[in-house]
Amino acid sequence: MEFDRKKIPSYLMILTIVAVAVFFNVLFFNTHISANDENIVDYDLSDEDINPVRESAVAGLFYPADVYQLDKDLDGYLEHVPSEMNSRPNMIIVPHAGYRYSAQVAAAAYKRLQPFKKQIHRVFLLGPSHRIMVNGVALPEAKSFKTPLGLVQVDTAVADELRKNPLFVTSAAAHKDEHALEVQLPFLQKTLEDFTIIPMLYGQADSQKIADALAPFLQDDTSLLVVSTDLSHYLDYDTAKAVDRRTAEKIQKSERVDPHQSCGATAVNTAILLARQFGLVPKLLDMVNSGDTSGDKERVVGYGAWVYQEPAEEKPLAGIELEQRNLQNFVRHNREALLQIAHTALEKAVREQKIYHPERDEFGNVLFDKGAAFVTLKKNGRLRGCIGSIKATKAIAADIADNAFAAALHDSRFKPVAAEELPEITFSIALLTNFEEIKFTSYTDLLAQIKPNIDGLLLQDGQREGVFLPAVWENLPNKDKFMTELKIKAGLSPTYWSDKVRVFRFRTVEIKDDDN
């Protein structure tokens, strides 16, 4: 039989089709059906299984994904900020927009960290959750966060401590696509050396509770709080400038910021509360809006950078400011002992109706130096008793114990605290400086000299007197209203005024029990 050469192309096409079909069948089998050489009984956990990594979510969107470009950009932002040696920042407030809009503002704060890059080893990151509803404050599941510059380890020990507080929850979902904290990491990687992070995203959360939870961790010289927030949103350029200017004024005066002034108002207010507690001073470093950086002035977003640090040492402290600093140092070294005394005194008062007498062999000698303190009791967040001393006449240990007893059993405004109430009772201790008389020429002049959220006031008129702690400003932020209520407390008419009235200011350092 003679072979038909004309059919060779048809034979070749058939062979090609068969070969292709076999190839794709083998590929499908290997991919979807065939077994690997390994057996599942030999399964070994990988490092990623044990230590999950939070991958970068906004690299390439909010900042460059290319490591070389990112490194170059960060160098440029930081080089444009003048170097300034000052005291170590304890907290910073920085924006969290895309780098083209706000990175130069953020750099103003991060540049302040560089001289202390070998001292700061633990960074608390606090910002709002933009994508996922969070009831409380969300910590990540991940053990590290990844950026193009590498991995940043999470301080799991601190995170686990925070999880003991019901305010804190764990949510990988909240952190997965969130930009507010991620955009801070490359700046931290460029300005610090050996550090870990505690990333925290909040939703429905109270700034006071967050501040109370973080305060014990922020008392050492190796910790930093980074507050991530933008300012006003989607206003026209001129209106945004005015709103942001008022926000800056509030921050400078340690007044609470409203949600419409900042998308991270809760975090900003947390910083304000911590600053009051630790005696830190805010400094505005830079403030612009997207109209300045992008040119579009119709709907803009505001950005600001602040640094919180101890008052400049070149201006020596004196008077009650110096005394307040000394009290802060005293509390830093004796906090647990002071809380133990108050707790023991409260328990003994309620359960046994007896005064607790701290012994010298129980506590350090410094706790028997003279001091004045107020002890405040609260139940479910509401006042349940408050008694204190305005002059240092006895050992601070005894003063706290006596006032805890009196607050529980002898505050005339309340019934004595019952034993069954104790699980719901929280307490705080306010240590007082001495008093400094305010010299004024008129009531208006007096109001001008008073410092809200900072000054405690004592008003005297003959035998009548009334005292308000600085904490009262929280409920009476208006100076005139504050003074009116103080006159009422002193047993005077709300409209009463006399040339015989004397007013003294003082400062406090407040500490709270761990359940507060």
What does this structure look like?
With 516 residues, this protein is an alpha+beta fold. The longest helix is centred in the middle third of the chain and has 34 residues, at 319-352. The chain is built from 15 helices and 22 strands. Strand 19 and strand 20 form a beta hairpin.
Record the SSE blueprint.
Layout: H1 8-33, H2 47-50, E1 53-54, H3 67-79, E2 91-94, H4 99-110, E3 122-128, E4 137-139, E5 144-147, E6 150-153, H5 156-163, E7 168-170, H6 172-176, H7 185-191, E8 196-202, H8 207-214, E9 223-228, E10 233-235, H9 237-252, H10 265-278, E11 281-289, H11 290-294, E12 300-309, H12 319-352, E13 370-371, E14 373-379, E15 382-388, E16 394-395, H13 396-409, E17 425-432, E18 436-437, H14 443-449, E19 456-461, E20 464-468, H15 479-489, E21 502-506, E22 508-512
Parallel strand pairs: 1-5, 2-9, 3-8, 3-9, 4-7
Antiparallel strand pairs: 2-12, 4-8, 5-6, 10-12, 11-12, 13-16, 14-15, 14-17, 17-22, 18-21, 19-20, 19-21
In short:
The protein is built from 15 helices and 22 strands. It has helices at 8-33, 47-50, 67-79, 99-110, 156-163, 172-176, 185-191, 207-214, 237-252, 265-278, 290-294, 319-352, 396-409, 443-449, 479-489; strands at 53-54, 91-94, 122-128, 137-139, 144-147, 150-153, 168-170, 196-202, 223-228, 233-235, 281-289, 300-309, 370-371, 373-379, 382-388, 394-395, 425-432, 436-437, 456-461, 464-468, 502-506, 508-512. The longest helix is centred in the middle third of the chain and has 34 residues, at 319-352.
